[in-house]
Write a structure and sequence with these properties.
The protein is of the alpha/beta class. It is 43% helix and 14% strand. It has a six-stranded mixed beta sheet, sandwiched between helices.
Length: 418
């Protein structure tokens, strides 16, 4: 692909599009040349997890089809907190924590986007650059007057909280205005004409497109153009309804220091059968004809499709070599019963109780879960079932310099003495 007009067609075919404002006008704008489009990411943690991957892949597709992705770091909006589809306000973070989180999140995008100064090179900006400098009264006068409180109260992000009689602070209520203002500022500074986000952001995105048009109409030919478009992606859950990116062992982070290539590969390998075709479209760059072929596999053959999904998704984040090494490690472990040296390893002060070790190695989220899984026969040490939750792992258990601790058939770590 090279023509920017392929973006909408490809995005629809791969399952990215849930809603779009004026799709025909957006298609016409794409034909005119590289389109700058953005997605915002608040700095609520020091990394993004797989739940954000659909947005990152959409930015990557935007770039692959000849357009310009803009990554907006929410250094300013993180101080407010997005209320969308939340039962309560996010914990407020101090400036130091926000800066540390931004530094961690920036690293996530490097494998997916090409940054630079070219027409289609990605750029990364921070909305603290303009939000931290706002004067309250001028902001209310110049921006706030374009918003109807009556309409804001009908937006899902607000209405659902109020319907449940849960508190919505005035601070959170302002988030909608700030996100719309971000779109306006990016439009002014970088010519950004498209905002994308999850389906829970639809109301906020529409408010931004309308703000740009109203300000442009007032200026009657000023620097702001009238083109402003929005698209949303569907909420990504698994076939069983679980939230994407969350597992019993915690979040699946997009930071290699938090989740190894092997564990990342295993996450995709463990996808539910009903999700394989959809995930291949969203999280790999395989041609759609190949996606359709793999999605049609049934019975035991669906495992072949899952391995392709795991390898292709892992290659995008960790590189092809690491992905193929993870696939080979899995093959040796499950098909040959070999404790491959490329399995994730954990250094422990032995002796250590097997329950504590399961938690410390992040195979289990809690000691209670570890005891339950031991009782169910789901834990093995060097391929032998662990029956006693009080069992200790000692230096005598090391085969060579490591012992293999397994949870079920698909999660393993090599325990080394330290």
């Amino acid at each position: 692909m090279s023509a920017s007009t392929d973006f909408l067609h490809e995005a629809r075919a791969r399952g990215f599009i849930h809603q779009a404002t004026e799709p025909e006008a957006l298609h016409a704008r794409l034909k005119a040349g590289p389109l700058p489009g953005y997605i915002g990411f608040d700095a609520t943690a020091d990394s993004l997890h797989v739940g954000s991957l659909v947005q990152i892949m959409l930015l990557r597709l935007l770039q692959r089809t000849g357009n310009k992705p803009v990554v907006l770091m929410g250094g300013g909006t993180t101080k407010v907190g997005d209320p969308s589809f939340r039962d309560e306000a996010r914990p407020l973070l101090d400036d130091a924590r926000i800066e540390a989180n931004k530094a961690g999140i920036r690293k996530v995008f490097a494998p997916f986007l090409q940054f630079g100064e070219g027409a289609t090179d990605a750029i990364m900006v921070d909305n603290a650059e303009w939000l931290d400098r706002l004067h309250y009264i001028p902001f209310l006068r110049d921006i706030g007057r374009h918003f109807s409180v009556n309409r804001m109260l009908t937006m899902d992000s607000v209405r659902l909280r109020l319907d449940r009689e849960q508190n919505l602070s005035f601070l959170e209520f302002n988030y909608m205005l700030l996100q719309a203002y971000d779109f306006l500022e990016l439009h002014r500074r970088y010519g950004v004409a498209l905002q994308a986000g999850g389906s829970d952001q639809w109301g906020n995105i529409v408010m931004g497109t309308e703000l740009i048009r109203r300000v442009a109409a007032e200026k009657r030919g000023g620097t702001s153009g009238k083109e402003a478009f929005g698209i949303t992606t569907p909420l990504i859950t698994t076939a069983s309804g679980a939230k994407m990116g969350k597992t019993a062992q915690g979040a699946v982070w997009l930071d290699g220091a938090k989740v190894s290539p092997y564990d990342y590969w295993q996450f995709w390998r463990n996808a539910e059968d009903a999700d394989v075709g959809r995930f291949l479209g969203l999280f790999t760059e395989l041609p759609m004809a190949e996606v359709a072929r793999l999605a049609a596999l049934r019975g035991a053959e669906v495992n072949d499709a899952k391995k392709v999904l795991a390898t292709e998704a892992t290659a995008l984040l960790h590189g092809r070599e690491a992905a193929e090494a993870a696939a080979e490690t899995a093959r040796r472990t499950f098909e040959e019963g070999v404790a491959a040296e490329t399995l994730p390893s954990f250094v422990a002060a032995l002796p250590m109780g097997v329950v504590d070790l399961l938690v410390e190695a992040k195979l289990c989220a809690s000691k209670g879960e570890a005891r339950r899984l031991i009782a169910q026969g789901g834990v093995r040490l060097n391929d032998a079932p662990v029956a006693d939750p009080a069992a200790q792992v000692t230096a005598a258990d090391l085969a060579g310099d490591a012992a293999k601790l397994s949870l079920g058939r698909k999660r393993h770590v090599l325990v080394r003495a330290g």
